[in-house]
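Support reply, case 0932

Customer input (verbatim):
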Amino acid sequence: MPAVPSAAPPPGLAYDEIVRIVANGTPPPPGNFQADVAALNAKPVAAATPTPAPRKRGFGIGGIVGAIAGGGNVAGAVGGSLASSAMDNAVQNSLGAQFGAMGASFANFLQPHLMRYAFWNGWERVEDVTAQTATIRKCDMGQVIQLNLAAKTYTIYAPNAEPVPTVPPGAPGRGRAPAAQPAQPGTAVATLNDTTRSLGPLKIEGEPTSGYDTTTSFATTQATGSCRNSNASIQTVQYLAPLAPPTVTSCPVRVPEGLPETASAAMPTGGCKPTFSMHRSGPAVPTGRLALYSLVSFGMANSAAPTPRPSAGPSSMGFLTERGNLKSLGPADEGLFGIPQGFTKTP
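Our regenerated output:
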């Protein structure tokens, strides 16, 4: 029998992305992508430390709840995990993957940072425009190609040998894990509240989007013994387009040196046994859609405005992702995922 031809690859997608950390400041509003690109291009180009292309790792809400129930430092737990995971699971993939390398380049993202993404045929190309570097992952072909666009050089790695970021001294998760505490009895009432409200439709970059504001709060009360009363919250404002996030052939995940596998791994529970309850209200947030605007904030109060206003406290921090310049890709764009002409191989 004649061979059955394989199905043609589905259409790919490319987009530009501005990412930044908003620390005690007012974030740009949704739909401001082109103005933010123009402002970024108008600034003098500063020397940038090359940012290794990000790797995704999941971070479950359960890890934060476990930290609260055990009397741990919730802010530290969240911050330590963000250095390696970007909390993809906790905020339904609304953060851009670029925060996977945050542990090695946290300071770089305090200013707006321009990234460029391309996806096709299960491959991905992640370009750090500021640092003039790019990483191409074709893991089904056993290749990870790192490009130095300024020097016109390239290096090819096996997927399981791709270099990973090194966590700088003093970063969360660095150093020796705390000694385990002896188990002690304790109880608490742990409550998770998930409240969502619709922000209505908004056209962003020519795409119709639907906005949602979700606040997820965690609290433990009535603590006894080794349990501790504590609370934390995460607020996510996102505008979702009717576009599916690109599919990528997964590469092996490698954890940056000096980081624990999970935030809760280094957090002793001390024998605390909380009773959990969860409450949800408001409309369901659609899954499997690409966010063109996403602001994930920690330690912020609810706001009546579509864009949350940071609190005055020193712990106010948000992670902002804006996407634009969307373009469909096809077989004619395969060259984006190859080595450019004139580039020299380095060891």
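We compared this against your earlier run and they match. Two observations from our side: The mean pLDDT is 73. The chain has one domain: 15-43+50-173+187-331. Please reopen the case if you see a mismatch on your end.
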